[in-house]
Amino acid sequence: YREAAAEWEEAIRIAPDNVFMLRNLGAAYHMLDDFERSASVLQKALEVEPSAAVWNNLGTARFFQGYYAASVAAFEKAVELAPNNYLNWANLGDGYRWAPGQRGKAPRAYGRAIELVRDLISRTPQDSELRSRLALYLAKSGDTAGALQDLASLDGSSGLTAANQFKIALAYEVLSNRDSALRALQAAITGGY
Question: What are phi and psi of 191, to 5 degrees?
C-alpha cells in the first residue's frame, strides 16, 4: 500500500483534480491506517466532484478514527446520493450504532440494507457474499432469530471465501456466540484473511 500511495501521490501532482486518483489515494491511506490523511484526500475529492462513493469512503475513514458523529454525516450524504446501495445503508447503521445519542436510528438503516440485500439475493440466491452480509446485518439490527437462521443456512456451504467467514465471525460475535465466532474467524484466517 505504501508503493500504491506513492504512485497515486505522484499522479495527483500531475493531475490534482482527478477524483479517481484522489479516491484511490484515500483508499491507500486507509489501508495504511492513516485515516486523517485518507479523510483529507477524500475531502479534496468531494470538493472536486461529490459522489456517494467518496462520501461513503470519508464516512469509513471517520468511523475508523472513532469520529462516529462525523461518519454519520458522511454516510447520510452517501445514502442521499445513492439510496439503493445496501452498503451505504449498512455503514450508516454502523455509524448510528456507535454515534452518541443515535443508536435508536440504527435498526431503520440496517432494515433498509436488509431489504436491498434480500432483493439481490432473490436474483442470485447462491451469492455467499450477499448471504453473509445479510446474516451480519440481521445480527446488527437485533433480529437474532433471522441472523441465526441465515447463519445456519451458510454453515457448511461450499465456496465461502475468507471474507465471507469474517462476516460470519462478526455476526456470531454480535450475537454473543463467541465459540462460533472464533471458529469462523479461524476459517477466515486459514483462508488468508
Answer: -80, 0
Average pLDDT, the chain: 96
> First CA to last CA across the chain, in angstroms?
16
Q: Which of 146, 68, 91 is nearest to 175 (CA)?
A: 146
Q: Which residue has the cell 479517481?
A: 20
What are the start-end ranges of the E strands in the chain?
Answer: none
Low-confidence ranges of the chain (pLDDT < 70): none
User: Which residue type is seen at 170?
Assistant: L
Number of Cβ within a 10 Å radius of residue 118: 14
Q: Supply the pLDDT for residue 51.
A: 95
CB 78 within 8 A of CB 59: yes
75 neighbors 91 (Cβ within 8 angstroms):
yes
d(CA 178, CA 181): 5
pTM of the model: 0.91
| pLDDT recorded at residue 188 | 97
